[in-house]
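Risk register update: the risk of archive-format incompatibility is retired. Evidence:
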Amino acid sequence: MRSALSRTKRLVVKVGTGTLTDPSGRFDRENCARLGAELAALARDHRVVLVSSGAVALGAERLGLVRTKGKPWDIPTKQACAAVGQPHLMAAWGDALGAHGLTVAQVLLTADDLASRKRFLNARRTFEKLLEAGVVPVVNENDTVAVDEIKVGDNDTLAGLVAGCVEAGLVAMLTDVEGLYDRNPAERGATLLHDVPRVTAEIERFAGGAGSERSVGGMATKVKAARRLGAQGVVTALLSGRREGALAALLAGEPVGTVFARGAARLTSRKGWLAAAAKGKGVILVDPGARRALTEQGRSLLPSGVRSVEGQFGVGDPVDIAVDPARPFARGLAGYAAEEIRKIAGLKTSEIERALGYKYLDEIVHRDDLVVLEPRE
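Archived output:
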């Protein structure tokens, strides 16, 4: 699995807050400069997209704000910090990569930008032009305007969405630990897992909970992102952002960090968009039998497997498919509107016309319009 990483043409590198700040929470310019040199070396043979945290921390530093332990800032304060910090973050990366002859470009996104097919394609075309020109796009969530309805939530998830947009083969997440351990790395006897063939329930338990006081995403969000990326045909690696040469060692096949294998072939362009859409416009709840038919047999979703529908959506809208509404396992384009599906849920295909008075399709979601996000329990 590792030996093939050097052949990856495009990669997304996500740099977390813990990598870009020191223990006091101040921006670590020395480490940023070192990473700039390493990214510049990678850019000679690969097309690199950088997803960078650190704007809120830089903004707080500029505003003289100190986070009180156990008392998180409210959303407007975080958004204000992001607004102040974002230009300074771009300046830091501009200096770090510019020292090696590279130009950077700022790309600010919300989940809504990627959920819209038109805006997704616009973003893809912009990324293509930047990468063709040898520019390194520096991506962050547009925190200043993002609200819950259009918010990605953390840069681990954002890195996964960007990978789908630019058709990357690898997402490397630089964090403040060496990788994923089989228990808390502070505990005696903790073992680093170098290679994870598949994200299982046990692997997710190893990931634990939330991030640090200064970051949003923890190990759990990284493992969740790795699981979804694997289903999309993308390899994910977790590496220490403090280990010198870690990225080069990873691409050379050396046993650094944790590498999550891809579990499927690369998705087509349209299915890549479906996977990259942060949220469906509603949720179709199905029974376990329907899940097996979709994830293991490559079938379409039929009315007989549908239990209920959450939300409102129209024909052709992206919708999430789930057994548990909190954990969608697939996403697809709806063949019927939400109200229509409510009327035919649980019926046989031969009963659709009698229930509605008409019939568009046999399928609620056709397999050609469906992408599996989490293939197995």
